[in-house]
Amino acid sequence: DVCSSDLLGHHAVSLPPHLSGGLPMSTQRLCDEAARLIQGADGLMIAAGAGMGVDSGLPDFRGNAGLWRAYPALAGARIAFEEIASPDAFVRSPALAWGFYGHRLNLYRRTVPHPGFAILQAIGARLPRGSFIFTSNVDGQFQRAGFDENRVCEVHGSIHHLQCLDGCDGRITPADGFEPEVDEDACLLRSPLPRCASCQALLRPNVLMFGDWGWLAQRTAAQRQRLEAWLGGARRTVVVEIGAGLHVPTVRWFSESLGEPLIRINPTEPNIPGRGVSLPTGGLA
Fold it and tell me: What pTM, to 2 d.p., does this model score?
């Protein structure tokens, strides 16, 4: 509805009333240019950072202020994001670390992806090679929105998968059977800590954390191989990047490294280094 209705066709998605009105003329021209770039492509590369989940109601932990708003217990203890999001936290205080990650796992499981995911699906469905996703998000929202699991590269891993804290057998297992009960006021796990079936050591999320030398990367490496194969077969890829900031610039580096037209959607840091379109808006808008 915002860019070109021809891109959506019968897949068109109704936007919420506050997003479906007219845009400023300058923004509309940018959207029209973005639509032209997409129409000239044979494949859609979707690159997504933390800002992609904001419109679904997910918190954005850019700095301690965002973390502490969502987790007052961590604010009271003055625990920084880099401290709680680290393997050392699982060694020092496993109930607290799993309180934080267990709450996030429950949150991501019950979150409904916003309509922007469906819009991207509809656009990709109309291109010959479809779409592929590269994301630093560990929330599994693209899969929850119906994207093909084999077309997603989660560069920082997934909270929906577990590994042994000691890495004893190198296995990565789905977290489907783990149902954490969390005291949200204290940010503490109340249910039993998850244990490795092989050695009984603590299980941790298969997520790349700060100072993380024990992260098992083979699942992400396999995703990256599929991504490289898809990119190798594309002739005219267009990159649509949503909500990827400079605080953790992994997604921005990837988008810029491809040398393809880049449509960067970011309300505060939209500038692009080369050809493409800079859209200073939120993801869903």
Answer: 0.90
